[in-house]
Amino acid sequence: xxxLIPAGFRALPLSAVQLSLAAVLKCGQxxxxxxxxxxxxxxxxxxxxxxxxxxxxxxxxxLRQSPDYLFYRSVFPGEHLSAEQERxxxxxxxxxxxxxxxxxxxxxxxxNQWSDRDQVFNKLKSRFSGIRMLRQDPWENLISFICSSxxxxxxxxxxxxxxxxxxxxxxxxxxxxxxxxxxxQVPATYHSFPPPSLLAAPxxxxxxxxxxxxxxxDYIQRTAKMLVDTHGCSISNTGSRENCEEWLTGLRDMSxxxxxxxxxxxxxxxxxxxxxxxxxSLDKREVIPVDTHVHQIALKHYGLRTVGGSKGKGAMxxxxxxxxxxxxxDIWGEYAGWAHSVLFTADLKAFSSFGxxxxxxxxxxxxxxxxxxxxSKRKHDETRNKAEMQRKAVLMSAAVAAIAAxxxxxxxxxxxxxxxxxxxxxxxxxxxxxxGSSPRPEKRRKRSSD
DNA sequence: CATCGACCTATG
DNA sequence: ATAGGTCGAT
Length: 450
What we know:
Layout: E1 10-13, H1 21-24, E2 34-37, E3 50-55, E4 60-65, E5 69-75, H2 83-100, H3 107-117, H4 119-124, H5 138-146, H6 153-167, E6 172-174, E7 188-190, H7 196-199, H8 204-210, H9 216-231, H10 243-250, H11 256-263, H12 271-281, H13 292-301, H14 318-332, H15 336-347, H16 387-407
Antiparallel strand pairs: 1-5, 2-3, 3-4, 4-5, 6-7
This protein binds a DNA duplex through helix 6, helix 9, helix 12 and helix 13.
């Protein structure tokens, strides 16, 4: 049967295996999407559960997803559009969508390739499907990931939204989708990402500090200033972006090494942030950003051994960085950065309940998490908007995974399995290596200094 | 080159 | 103490 198209939306045929909005828009690639839970529908199997919104320069793009379709619409400020304007804007939004989600790339084919090359990935692919790389705006991407240093996703999200609110005027104000008429919720205002010239002003430092950016406030202002001073902030006659934004985008045409070299010139941009930008907005699909998390994944699941003078703690030295990146790149191949994103997302604690079907969709009171887990196989909560619920979901998922692990096969490790370390066990990746025969995870060895 | 401490802030 | 690090000084 054909599922209903939500009112005002257009439907693009697209399998959920090719794209999972729930994963891709919330896994820390972009920090600017807002999501709204939708009231549950009678046809719960195939109808969207959330609406996602992003403010572009001139419009707000709204998305919903069913197993077989991506539903989209765009909302503009001002009065109604003519039929012709409507047609044109829909076409523009569709073009943007195809570019932003890189729909020309067959993700299923990539998943199959990675599965052939990597047994660890093979275990994850069914649960964490549809995770692809966005093709983001380089300027927004750069600033967002300067914010990401020594930081966590919720706070980065807050910071980026605060920055947009501070430096971009409100494009439009919209009510949440399909309100339950009970309470009058305030409409949300939507702000686009501000251009470089606005962040280059000296006063930005203190303003951003006031917004809780910490030391990143300086980095952002100085980077914006550098960019504007070096490559100009006038608007070119063709596009609607500042010259330096165009220049940044132009790094797409350079080699990975040359583009990285340019990015590293900016303040607050080290190897990791540079690699994030290369991968997420500059088309460098083979690049693997290595953070502490990815490092742990490499140690735990890919038998990377800690060589060199690395001290006991997992210090991220340039040496280690290169080793991890080289190892994973070798395993995953041409689209290694994309594969990395799947593994990274799978390891996020916030995704511990991802890809597990709730068998009892009716009851989802957040409290009953612990007791019922041991008896039932696939019972699980479904809504996870409450931050508090997420930690319970972690425990629950771990229990579910442990049961499932009994029936699963031993995971082959690429190097020496005996070198596997277990630094943190509350992630999802941890579930795939519990095969019953592996040695008991050792406690993290901690040096009592002082 | 490799290593170390400082840096904002919020949460475990 | 650490969260998807980076900078500047040994």
